[in-house]
Amino acid sequence: MKKLILSIALAGTILLTSGSIIFAGNHIDTKFDFYFTSSNKVRTTEARPKLDATSSYVKINAGKNLNLGVSMKMVGGKWNGSHYEDVGSSTKIFYRPGSAKIPQNTYEWGKSSTRLQGTRVNPGYMTAFGLWSPDSI
Asked: CA-CA distance, 64 to 54, in Å (whole number)?
């Protein structure tokens, strides 16, 4: 009986381990701190590798004057002279703490990395603090 229980536990461990390998992506959350002053309305994180075709993830934990609104989307990792690459990202507007998956086409369009970009919706000083990841799984 003990051998049967041990065999089942071992099989479960192998299944769980293989599942995390199969669905592995760049899903570790990274902190972001966006400060919007009167002279800037756009903030962008550092680029991270995009390893699969899943949506990206963003979570706003806190901020000051979030009621002004912050629009979040994904952009490519490379600068094109005046802006970061377009990756066909949808946009999510936050007026309070919350989270969302953001569909985009970074991986499908052959781009190797992505960034989270926040844009203040209304004028005024504002901050937004949270976590993001390029791959949601």
From this structure: 30
Instruction: Read off the tokens for 93.
Output: 């507007």
Measure the CA–CA gap between 110 and 121, rounded to whole angstroms.
Answer: 30
Distance CA 60, CA 68 (A): 14
Round to whole Å and give the CA distance between 24 and 137: 7
CA–CA dist 126, 124 (Å, integer)? 6
Query: 128: closest CA among 98, 87, 106, 104?
Result: 98
pLDDT in tens, 11-63: 554 444 444 344 457 788 999 999 999 888 999 999 999 999 999 999 999 99
Judged by DSSP in three states, 107 sits in coil
